[in-house]
Write a structure and sequence with these properties.
By secondary structure, the chain is α/β, with parallel strands linked by helices.
């Protein structure tokens, strides 16, 4: 098992354990309402994939708002999380257990990819972005929600990840400019980047 596979295994085991506990990871939860505010007035939506969907809370909110109007997909490494997501959505979304660096989806499959607080778990972020770009239809959008700590806190966070050997699968906490550079290099055009919900960014890009 190489280093990338080990990190993915750590992520899978961590999120399997979280899904089976009463713990709710706070960062994504604080951002759900902001994402819904941006989506709620859209009348052109056809399909959304939540990459790193966890237990399906974001998709459940989208389904409640839009009903059967749009096709929903959820992908995650954690089988335990997906089991809960399937129970919540009750057939309203298609769920896939898989790896964002090797997305088991067709080219240009979806209109929007949501990617919320998962990016710092990717061992090969450029490969992940290439796969996300591949599955988005021409003119479609990539919505990235990711942590951004102030420089000293980010340095300490990344040092701790190294010292604990990335036990929970976290790879690196990024500055916004690092994310924007990778996103642009992947071929996306950045339409907006804003700070939301304490220390998170919402970056919206177009293919």
């Amino acid at each position: 098992m190489d280093k990338s596979d080990k990190l993915k295994k750590n992520s899978q085991e961590y999120f399997d354990s979280v899904a089976n506990s009463d713990y709710t990871i706070p960062e994504p939860t604080r951002c759900y309402s902001v994402v819904m505010e941006r989506l709620q007035d859209r009348t052109d939506l056809e399909s959304i994939a939540d990459v790193g969907c966890g237990t399906g809370d974001m998709l459940e909110m989208i389904a409640a708002k839009f009903g059967e109007e749009i096709k929903l997909y959820g992908l995650d490494l954690s089988g335990n999380a997906l089991k809960q997501a399937e129970e919540k959505l009750a057939g309203r979304a298609e769920f896939i257990q898989g790896d964002v660096e090797n997305l088991p989806m067709e080219d240009q499959k979806v209109q929007i990819v949501l990617n919320m607080h998962s990016f710092h778990h990717y061992p090969n972020p450029d490969k992940a972005l290439a796969e996300i770009y591949r599955i988005i239809a021409k003119g479609g959008e990539y919505w990235l929600v990711e942590n951004e700590y102030k420089p000293f806190r980010r340095f300490i966070a990344n040092l701790r990840l190294t010292l604990n050997r990335h036990r929970e699968g976290d790879v690196k906490m990024y500055a916004r400019e690092e994310l924007l550079t990778m996103i642009k290099n992947a071929g996306f055009a950045v339409e907006s980047a804003e700070a939301i919900a304490d220390h998170s960014n919402l970056i919206i890009c177009r293919k």
